[in-house]
Specification:
alpha/beta, 7-stranded mixed β-sheet, 14 helices, 13 strands, 31% helix, 3-stranded antiparallel β-sheet
Length: 348
């Protein structure tokens, strides 16, 4: 068996003699509910089935799609539910004041974040505010995040290219399924043009601006920027920014450095779409509820827009997709029904 794909043996064993040690004896299969989804572990976008009960994910198995992964998945994707069920998930909004972090309500977190952003914009201008989107976020999340940054905050400083995924999203890691880009939606972020406009700063420019004291607020969507960049000086640079706010699934180095950390749902806890390396748009669906007070990022960003006095025409993933399809050529004429169970390549 090829290294990294041994879990498929349990799927194809005709008599059930070969089983998964992680799943064996944990739950009877007839008690499980199944939700079709897409693996979020790399840019291939393998089709999967999430088996769950009482908001606990017990296993992920391959779902057949001849155009993407046939009937196979790698072990990395198969075990990705462990991250979803991790005790390191961020579960409550957190505000850090004078180095001390404390849990707060969503209402207070949203109000505090918008108030501080508007104060900074008023004092230093929109160019003093920067944002980093995510190739791990859904198309819907990135789309509405861009709306907030460019239309409400009016900042041109927006990028998502923290690692090398945008250069490697088509490159294979092996000769089967795995790709070097470990993000599920790099192609989608490129299609949505989650990059600087009108002379705005890219990620490296944002970091340089923060080092020089020119960035007074940084808003990050679901990326551990400090952990991914692996720059020893980055935490010190972030400490110079008066306001760092993060929407994150996990507790990580970046949430530890943030003044405001907002807990959001993982790929297994929300609806939306990813666009794989080949421009195939595919649906993910909520299988379980997010932990604690975590919310879908589209709902959080919609609340930020409304709190700032902006108009929000629908807050669900499907409603946001319809808006996106009317404005972005790569999604033109599409809806969730047309995407279907096997996805659709842009332009088909």
């Amino acid at each position: 068996i090829v290294d990294g794909y041994s879990g498929n043996l349990a799927d194809i064993c005709p008599v059930g003699a070969l089983t998964s040690g992680k799943f064996r004896f944990r739950c009877r299969v007839w008690f499980l509910n199944s939700t079709p989804s897409i693996c979020a572990s790399c840019s291939t976008g393998c089709n999967i089935r999430i088996d769950h009960k009482d908001d606990v994910i017990y296993r992920i198995v391959a779902r057949r799609n001849p155009a993407v992964n046939s009937s196979w998945i790698c072990d990395e994707g198969r075990m990705s539910y462990e991250r979803v069920m991790s005790t390191q998930r961020l579960t409550k909004p957190v505000i850090r004041t004078n180095g001390s972090a404390s849990a707060t309500t969503w209402e207070e977190a949203i109000k505090t974040l918008n108030t501080r952003l508007m104060e900074i914009r008023s004092e230093f201008g929109a160019s003093a505010i920067a944002a980093i989107a995510s190739p791990a976020a859904t198309n819907e999340e990135n789309y509405i995040f861009k709306k907030y940054i460019t239309d409400i905050i009016n900042s041109p400083n927006l990028d998502f290219r923290v690692d090398e995924g945008h250069k490697n999203y088509e490159k294979m890691e092996d000769h089967l399924l795995r790709r070097l880009d470990k993000n599920p939606n790099t192609r989608g972020a490129l299609n949505l043009k989650m990059t600087p406009t009108n002379g705005g700063l890219d990620v490296n420019g944002i970091i340089a601006g923060a080092r020089e004291g020119k960035i007074n607020a940084l808003l990050i969507l679901n990326q551990d920027v400090i952990g991914r960049k692996q720059d020893a000086d980055l935490r010190a640079i972030f400490s110079r920014i008066p306001l760092v706010a993060v929407l994150s699934e996990m507790k990580d180095e970046t949430t530890d450095a943030a003044h405001i950390a907002l807990p959001i749902a993982s790929f297994a806890e929300k609806d939306g779409t990813f666009t794989n390396y080949k421009d195939r748009i595919q649906r993910i669906r909520a299988a379980v509820k997010p932990p604690g007070d975590a919310r879908d990022a589209t709902a959080v960003i919609s609340e930020l827009i409304k709190s700032a006095g902006g108009d929000v025409e629908g807050t669900t993933a499907s409603e946001i997709f319809k808006r996106m399809a009317s404005e972005v050529s790569e999604f033109s004429g599409l809806d969730y029904d047309k995407i279907g169970e096997e996805g659709i390549i842009t332009g088909d």
